[in-house]
Amino acid sequence: MPHEFVQYGLSCLEKFAALGDSCAKVTRERIRVVAAGGDGTVGWILGCLGELKKQGREPVPPTGIIPLGTGNDLSRSFGWVSFYL
């Protein structure tokens, strides 16, 4: 679940980085998120990442979106092309 990852996974990296773990620091700085799903899934993940911004937990990981939902309202509103196989 994205919420648990944001709260637990990133906080573990942040704690280890604060203790001097250079690998945890680099991982926290370079982590990326890919949201693959429908509008609800993408909105949920982006909302969780938005909480990082509110909490001042920078950097907020760059996020890629793979629109896989049935409606694809998000991709349509951004003018992304959707391919149906």
UniProtKB/TrEMBL annotation:
<keyword id="KW-0418">Kinase</keyword>
<dbReference type="InterPro" id="IPR017438">
    <property type="entry name" value="ATP-NAD_kinase_N"/>
</dbReference>
<dbReference type="InterPro" id="IPR016064">
    <property type="entry name" value="NAD/diacylglycerol_kinase_sf"/>
</dbReference>
<protein>
    <submittedName>
        <fullName>Diacylglycerol kinase 3</fullName>
    </submittedName>
</protein>
<keyword id="KW-0808">Transferase</keyword>
<feature type="domain" description="DAGKc">
    <location>
        <begin position="1"/>
        <end position="85"/>
    </location>
</feature>
<dbReference type="InterPro" id="IPR037607">
    <property type="entry name" value="DGK"/>
</dbReference>
<dbReference type="Pfam" id="PF00781">
    <property type="entry name" value="DAGK_cat"/>
</dbReference>
<dbReference type="InterPro" id="IPR001206">
    <property type="entry name" value="Diacylglycerol_kinase_cat_dom"/>
</dbReference>
<dbReference type="GO" id="GO:0016301">
    <property type="term" value="F:kinase activity"/>
</dbReference>
